[in-house]
Amino acid sequence: xxxxxxxxxxxxxxxxxxxxxxxxxxxxxxxxxxxxxxxxxxxxxxxxxxxxxxxxxxxxxxxxxxxxxxxxxxxxxxxxxxxxxxxxxxxxxxxxxxxxxxxxxxxxxxxxxxxxxxxxxxxxxxxxxxxxxxxxxxxxxxxxxxxxxxxxxxxxxxxxxxxxxx
Length: 166
Prior knowledge:
Number of strands: 0
Radius of gyration: 17 Å
Oligomer: single chain
Largest sheet: none
Helix content: over 70%
Strand content: under 5%
């Protein structure tokens, strides 16, 4: 069984993961409006991944005989300056999510909740990958500077991303 405090914290993380999906969908829509379909597709797949994270936590709460409680999702920003600004914001957002996951791990340790601690290790590893991927794209976008051909090539590269099953 899961403590009420941990249950509430995990429910808050479900909200954060769904917000992440919502934010990435908003970014995808903006990128699509900028005629960057590869970037837009990448963000759409990222949104699907974030929903998968939310559902993983949802299932864990239920498995531990807890109660999932869903709350309102905040409205994300809808207009962005550029692909670079979007990915810089995505990187900052992933760093924020990493902080949230780390707090959950700290709480699980504090509560001696070994099951939740073990469960959260997957998310710790996932956040390392999420941050590294976003940072790599930011660095590539910085290299292209204002060269449309570089942006076009990166758009084609990001279009190759396929959805994965977690």
